[in-house]
Amino acid sequence: MKLALILFLSLGVLNSCSTQFNKVLKSKDYDYKLKMADKYYENKKYKNAEELYVELFPIFKGTQKFEELYYKYAYCSFYEKNYPDAENLFKGFLEVFPNSDKAEEVAYMHAYTFYLQSPKVELDQINTNKAIGMMQSFISTHPNSSKIKDANEIIAKCRSKLELKDYKTAQLYYDLQQYHAAGISFTNLLNSYPESSKGEEYMMMAVRSYYQYARLSVFDKQEERYQKVSTAYFDFADRFPESKLLKEAENYKNISLNNIKKIQNEQAKTPAER
User: Fold this and answer.
1) Which of 112, 175, 228, 255 has the fewest C-beta atoms under 10 angstroms from its C-beta?
2) Which of 32, 97, 21, 106 is nearest to 61 (CA)?
3) pLDDT values of the chain reduced to their tens digit, one per residue, 274 residues
4) Sign of the Cα pseudo-torsion (249, 252, 257, 258, in order)
């Protein structure tokens, strides 16, 4: 009985709110509508506020009230998690009001919407790259902003996601025994993310990949490819001289150099000796 009463009262409140909103929609008093839109906005009823702002957008365009209307309209989409529309509206606000005292905030929010549209790591990372570019642009144009720290943190998160995606690709090549592609991918990972805490692991995987690639190659190609293992090792030793993985990499280098000697000795033999 108590639950039924609660449901009845809830429905009554919803119907009352719906009736009130319909009255606002039917009103021809645009100043009243704007006042109500702002009230809905303040009460976090963004869907209702947005519906009114959409209607009032052309009505107040060019007036002193338009900037605030546009600003809140953009945020309605943002709060409703409609990030593509929010992105376009924040961009439009900046184009219409480049000198607004809200311009810095909106510029940050415009960049932030790209970050919020960044997909799972397995998917195409267009918006992740855009978020990095937009945040870097924001930092350049607003060097004294209180949002600089946040912008840098978002750039770091985006780069970590891109790094993880590239790592998964490189590891997949290795798992599929496409060792040449794996070696190149792990080397590129290190070059693209030199600040990565996993740099030693990437370099080790590059050495392993080039070794496996050489080992499985046809005889005529092995010498050249074993030499690549040696080159990768010395690159590793130069970058990470104190690495715990260096001993393993050195072992691959030594095996490769021994194999090169064997190949050269074999090539030096006469046909009869072979």
Assistant:
1) 175
2) 97
3) 555 444 444 444 555 567 889 898 889 999 999 999 999 999 999 999 999 999 999 999 999 999 999 999 999 999 999 999 999 999 999 999 999 999 999 999 999 999 999 999 999 999 999 999 999 999 999 999 999 999 999 999 999 999 999 999 999 999 999 999 999 999 999 999 999 999 999 999 999 999 999 999 999 999 999 999 999 999 999 999 999 999 999 999 999 999 999 998 877 776 666 5
4) positive
